[in-house]
Every structure is written in structure tokens, then in C-alpha cells.
Amino acid sequence: MLPKIYLEKQDSKDFSFIHASDLHLGSHQYRNEERANDFINAFEEILTLAKLNEVDFILLGGDVFTSLEMLPGKLTRIISVILNFKKSTQNQIQIIAIEGNHDIRKFSLGVRFRNRGQSWLKLLASLGMLILLDADLNASPENRFTLYNFNTNSGGKVQIKNAIIYGTRYLGENPKEELLKIKEAIEKNDGLFHILLQHFGIEGQMENVPGINYKDVECLKERINYLALGHFHLQFTIKNWIYNPGSSEATCTSDFFFKRGIFLVKVSYDHGYKKEVKQLKLLNRRAVWINIYFKIPFQNKDHLKEYILKMLEASLKKQEPLLINHRNHHKPCLFLKINGIKPYKGCKINEKELNQVICEKFPFVNVKIYQKFTEPIKSIIKYL
């Protein structure tokens, strides 16, 4: 049962919360155990920041898990992290989440489980470890967002102090009609600070990535004080009412170069609500990008490997202070681009083997190799 403080309107109208999204827990990036743990470490850091800042609740904007496939050991650790957090805070900081597209999908078979109603978030909610919001948008407006029931662990809205949080599961890339239904169901003048938790992107915020047009979202502005989004891994804010924190860890190469993190939001009341939104950067593992150019078509594998290691060593001597002085002392990921003149057929690069050799010799947790070659040029004699 939720403590009484969360069920009744409080005298103090001030409150604070953390907004995070796209944690992708359970991800086993590059099949690397250290990278798999990075996603859980980021979640643990978010919970630590929530305690340090004494917030009233945490919002998770979907894609909390990367898929329905996950190793039992990882789920056990995630549950342990949440239990320790709840115990250390005496259950006074609630975790509020919605299901994103990754939470309801299984990658290996490409099967979507939306109709089957399965997700790890539902499991955690059934154990009382978090609040999972969802609405029945086919119901009448007054019944679409039912108050969260802590006995059945279900509902579409929850009130904490003077904040009321509405939320639904992932509604697709362009939920234009659903947003109109959401607007109809939200009370306009109830004296509360309205937060809507959603999982979709806004068109134009990420290049060549589809999203909903801002004009179709704007209809919510008169009912919503803070639109808390997830889905896009790039952090952005729009007109002081739409906020997307970005992913908490890098799930792919491009994510490493995005602005990402979480938002710390403090809301005060003085003849109206005023919010202060602060961007917090997490202590993520960083990435190093190195380019190696082949000036000749290598014919010997050993010579090729020696050349790559030699060029890496030379490049790292220039970057070594950055590697040592970075506030996160974990070994970085390496993105290695190899281009130039293509080696001969008998000298093909074995990426798995090269990855292992580099990680043994240099301070990297993993190497992602990109090859882009031009065909060997004819000899100068033949050309002449």
C-alpha cells in the first residue's frame, strides 16, 4: 500500500522529480558483459541522484527494458537495485513508468507482444516495485484515466502531492487521434500541476527519424504543464513544456555522440506553478573514434595487424590525457574506422580476432570496426 502522503493533496504545493527515459535494461550490447552492466549502472545512478536530490518521484518515459529477452541474472540484479532503493528511501520516492515499444517486443522473432499484454514492467508493477500507468482510450472521457489502484496495480493516473501524472503505453509513431482523446479526458482547472508521460518523438528533432508533427501535439498545451517524453535517444526541449531527456546509456554508435541524460525538475507555487528544469549528465562510458588509412594493399596478415596496432598506439599517445583524466574512469569503447586501399583477398581482417588483440593491448572495453576500402590501384608501370 502506498503511504498516505501520496494519496492525499498536501498543504505544500512544491515538489520535485526526475525525468528519465530509454534505459534499455537487459541490453547486451556487442555481446559484452561490461557493456551489459553499463545500462544497469546508469539506472542505479539515476536512483542515487533521486535520493541525493530528495525528489518526490521518478518518471520513466518508456523503453525501460530493451526487449522481452533478458538473462535471469540481469533481471535479478535490476530487482535487487530497486529493492535496495525502496528500502533506503522507506518507499517515499515512487518510480512511475509507461511501456515503450521496446518493452513489448521480442527481437529474435520480430514478434510484437502488445496484444498478449506481456512485459517486464508489468511484472515489476505486480510486485509493487513501481507504478505502471496505462489508459483505456476507448472508454468515455471521464473513465479513460482511472486513478491508480495500489491493490490491483493498475490505472492511468496517479497524484503525488500537487502533481497529477497521466500516462499511456506506446501508441505508435504518430498517435494524432489518440492525443485528442487524451486531451478530452484531462481536467482543465483542478488546481494541480499536470504531467503527461508519453513515448513518441517529435518530427524534426532527429534527422531522417519519423515523429509526430508538433502542431498535432500542441492541442495538449492548455491541459499539460509538462509533457514528459521518451523514444528519441537525443535530448531536446520544446517551448518550455515538452521535454525529452534522451537515452540513459548509448544503445548504438550514434548515441555516444548525442546529448543525453536526465532532467531534474523542481516545481514551486506562488500564485501559479513555476518549474525549474535542470539537465543532469550521467557518468556514462565514453567512446573514442580513431581512423586508420591503408596507403598500400597489404598482402600479409601479420604486417597488416602490426600496422594497425602501431597506428593505434601513435593515436592513443595524443589522446592519453583524455583517457586518464575523464571523470568516468571506465575503459572507453573504441570505434575504429579502417579505410584506404583494400588488402588482397588472402589478407582479410578478422574483426573478432582484431577486437580481442586490441582490447588486450590497449585500455578499451570493446572495439567496433568499420571497413571502407577502395580497390587496389594498378601499378605505376602498368598505368604508364
**Architecture per CATH nomenclature, i.e. the level-2 architecture of the largest domain:** 4-Layer Sandwich
> What oligomeric state do the depicted chains represent?
single chain
Q: How much strand content do the residues show?
A: 15-25%
Distance between the termini: 85 Å
Determine the fraction of residues in helical runs and give it as a percent range.
25-40%
Q: Structural class of the secondary structure composition?
A: alpha/beta
CATH class of the largest domain: Alpha Beta
Question: Strands of the largest sheet, in order across it?
Answer: 6-3-2-1-13-14
User: What's the total helix number?
Assistant: 9
Q: Quote the average pLDDT.
A: 89
Shape: elongated
Along the chain, the helix and strand elements come as EHEHEEEHEHEEHEHEEEEEEHEHEH
CATH homologous superfamily classification of the largest domain: Metallo-dependent phosphatases
Question: How many domains make up the coordinates?
Answer: 2
Could you tell me the CATH topology label of the largest domain.
Answer: Purple Acid Phosphatase, chain A, domain 2
The main β sheet shows up as: 6 strands, mixed
Provide the gyration radius in Å: 24 Å
* Strand runs, count: 17
Uncertain spans, ≥5 residues at pLDDT below 50?
A: 1-9, 107-114, 324-328, 379-384
Describe this structure in words.
This protein is of the alpha/beta class and 384 residues long. The chain has 2 domains: 4-280, Metallo-dependent phosphatases (Purple Acid Phosphatase, chain A, domain 2), CATH 3.60.21.10; 287-383, Translation Initiation Factor IF3 (2-Layer Sandwich). It is 27% helix and 23% strand. The protein is built from 9 helices and 17 strands. It has helices spanning 33-52, 72-88, 120-126, 141-144, 176-185, 214-217, 301-325, 351-361, 380-383; strands spanning 15-20, 57-60, 94-97, 105-106, 111-112, 131-132, 157-160, 163-167, 193-199, 226-230, 236-238, 242-244, 262-269, 273-280, 287-294, 333-341, 366-374. A 6-stranded mixed beta sheet has the order 6-3-2-1-13-14, covered by helices on one side. Strands 7-8-9-10-12-11 form a 6-stranded mixed beta sheet, with no helix packed on it. β13 (262-269) and β14 (273-280) form a beta hairpin. α1 packs parallel to α2. It is elongated, with a radius of gyration of 24 Å. The N and C termini lie far apart (85 Å). Mean pLDDT is 89; it is low at 1-9, 107-114, 324-328 and 379-384.
